[in-house]
Structures are given as C-alpha cells and as structure tokens.
Amino acid sequence: MPAGATPVSDWEKCNSDPILWRLIEGPRRTITDSNIDVRVFTTHLADGTFDNGDVLGEGPDIHIAGYVTNSDQARERAAALLEAAAEADA
Questions:
Q1: Any bridge partners for residue 15, and if so which?
Q2: Residue 69, domain extent
Q3: Tens digit of pLDDT for each residue in 19-50?
Q4: Alpha-carbon span 50 to 42, nearest angstrom
Q5: What is the total count of domains within the chain?
Q6: Could you tell me if 60 and 37 are in contact, meaning their C-beta atoms sit under 8 angstroms apart?
Q7: What pTM, to 2 d.p., does this model score?
Q8: With contact defined as beta carbons under 8 Å apart, do 21 and 9 qualify?
C-alpha cells in the first residue's frame, strides 16, 4: 500500500466475482486557510495490486472538497491536484 494510504472499507467481493478488494484513501492534501482538501481513492486488490480500471472497472479517482476563495488558494489547489494526479498514475 502506498505511504500515507489508509483502508476505508473492509475486504469485499464484487457480486459473484471471486476477486477480493477494498477501497483505500491516499493522503489528504489540505489548502491553507480553507476547507479545501484533495485526496485519491483507489481500489486495492487482495493480490497487492491496484485496479487501474481493467479488473473491476474502477481506476483511481481524485476527490476535491471545498471551494477556492482566493488566488493563493487556487495555486495551492492546483499543486495539490498535480501531486494527486501523479499519485493516481503511479
């Protein structure tokens, strides 16, 4: 599991599919003086790999919460998004 990642669900099976999986959340990137955070969620498979969309049809997702309120926060949000995108591609 990537550094800073945390399981957010128990191991599950997808309907009749024998593949075990769980949802994990990457590190939370917060934006200074705001309620904005950026995180990556992805599907962790029991064999230790991560679904890129080929196994269960769900690749990594980048979640953004909150609203940008000024230009400094917008720049910080952009940096957090680029970092999360690189993490999702890894």
A1: none
A2: 6-89
A3: 899 999 999 888 888 888 888 889 999 999 98
A4: 7
A5: 1
A6: no
A7: 0.73
A8: no
